[in-house]
TrEMBL record:
Entry protein name: Phosphoenolpyruvate-protein phosphotransferase
Domain PEP-utilising enzyme C-terminal: 4-293
Annotated residues for binding of Mg(2+): E184, D208
A GO molecular-function annotation: metal ion binding
Binding site for phosphoenolpyruvate: R48, R84, N207, D208, R218
Amino acid sequence: EQRQLNRLRREPTRTLDGTDVKLWANAESRDDVTEAHALGAAGVGLYRTEFLFLGSSELPDEDTQFHAYRDAVLAMTGRTVTIRTLDLGADKADKTGLALRDEPNPALGLRGVRLSLARDGLLRTQLRAIARASGYGPVRVLVPMVSGGEEMRAVRTALDEVLRELRAEGRETAAQLPLGAMIEVPSAALALPSFIGICDFLSVGTNDLVQYLLAADRTNEALGGLYSPLHPAVLRVLRDVVRIGQRRGRPVTVCGEIAADPAFTPLLLALGLTELSLHPATLLEVRRTIRASDLERLRASAPALLRARNRAGIEAWLTAQASRTH
Ligand code: PEP
Ligand code: MG
């Protein structure tokens, strides 16, 4: 079976009825990037930069970050690398000296872009390193934990400044550096029409979106089945984000764990997604599932999926799709 999967490394990610789906890879190390390339990923859809910051008590300087980002860009040989700015919260940031002491609720605290904007130089240094890496191949910048347009405007301003500065220094950067928002805080999903105009692309982080929509801690095992993407509210939000993206011509990716589980692939295709980003570990399985999917039929059954009243109804829809593909 592994051999059959391996054959899919060089095959396109195309549905039975001929639509190409973009399968990006999530990467949190150099090895993940190498693996993503070998598997024929469309690019890196989520490059998590936290690992650079968690290794030591000192913040990585611009050159250290630049070298890591440039290596990823070069390893992808012309395919786009989507670099996410730092997504640390007080639960992890205490070792880096970035966090406030004793934040009572790190998941709702100074995390992600909030921390990047609050700490002097943090965002600027990281954007400079990313922009310098863009001189070596296509790069996009992705902003985590966006709650609305103000954060995106602040990052956009900082990015424009950094690009101007680097050019004045005579450094090579890409002419354009697409800037995207993670949609993982419910307010960002609901307010999206008010700021999609300043986003070049969107990436839905279902891990946090589920946590914040359902008020269910993603790390709390006591919650059992409560923390699950199979909730009608999650599907509604996903459908709405996809629609708004389509209407405004902004590509939408899903990069949470839901994208990595082939059991959920039919659901994401039905909701209109054509771009997923997932860890290399299951990329070929998801590609296999997409290649066995009839996209038009799935989309036609989206209304039934959205009518499901609870998890059991959504699971029944998934079971019905699975029996039709195999
Ligand atoms: C997410 O929240 O879905 C996501 C992809 O980001 P992380 O898991 O790093 O929070
Ligand atoms: Mg997240």
